[in-house]
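Lesson 9: reading folded outputs for more than one chain in a single document. The general rule is that every protein is listed as its sequence immediately followed by its structure tokens, and records are never interleaved. Here is the first one.
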Amino acid sequence: MDNLPLSEKNQETSAEESQRPPRADLRDAIGWIALGLAVLVGSITMDRLEHQNINPYTVPGLLPGLLGIAMVILGSVLGVRSWRRGAAMQPSPPLSSLDREQRKRVVIATVLCIGYGVVLVGHGLPFWLASSIYVTASILVFQRISPNLAERRLDLRSIVKALVIGVLSSIVTWLIFEEVFLVRLP
């Protein structure tokens, strides 16, 4: 594809896009709009720090709010495009085993992220420990559900490897936020 002229690349990309069912794009659009609205609501309800005379252009939540608005706009564009392609008229195609596996992985990743954000962070555990638990658990869970049977086996070596990656990544993240960005983490 790299050696093709630009017009042929565009035709190939258009062919790939036309293979994606419009209903799938509509579902994705709804998801992006919902996520954008959640981010926007969260950013609006953040403490504005007025009591500290913070400049309104540097208040917490400004950038997440703008990103939330962008997600809503782009999700809406995707939704309109899929609607015009007939998303409401086409029946949903049956799910393949690959589609079911991908959905399962998305649900597991979502549950892990929500567990990290709602249960682990900000409830007494230091940030580095909560993040270590999250990263280690994520590695082990996704290794356990790997399509490759050889990777599914959890032995002492793979557990130690996941633990080392989890601890090191969380300590590096914690140090960068504390020392470089000067953000105090819980």
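And here is the second record, again sequence then tokens.
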Amino acid sequence: MPQLHLIEGPVGAGKSTYAADLAIRIVGIHIALDEWFARLFSPDRPNADVMPWYMERKERLADHIWSHAQVLLKSGAKPILELGLVQQRSREAFYQRAQAAGIELQVHVLEASREVRRERVARRNIEKGPTFSMLVPEPIFELASDVWQSPDAAGIAQHRIEVIFTDA
């Protein structure tokens, strides 16, 4: 059965760094929705009503990445997806989608304290290093942190989710 890796966690938890390291370890292909989103859509971002604009494009892009991942799997590649599925229901829908397609899903959820994540994001905004894809202002960091839903114990057991704490 083909295997796909899904990397999730709150903003600043270290998802992109983890995914890049995983790609080296398993000889996989890291696909980060934020990176694609910034390149494809940021130049067209409106000044007002940003959330509806963002959500429509995020959903469309996530569907495209899903299709692309299936092509990669058929070629024998090992996709590592970082999709920003911050709410339980969106992750559950993705798990069901993978199961219906006969794809084994390995889920990695990264967690870190809000203070550590806030510091990482502030540093990334300044340094614009290898994991930088877009500026995350502090109000957006706080909003994104507030909407993140960690998996519960039942979901961790049911989906064999690997939870990785990255505070250190």
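What the second record shows: The chain has one domain: 3-165.
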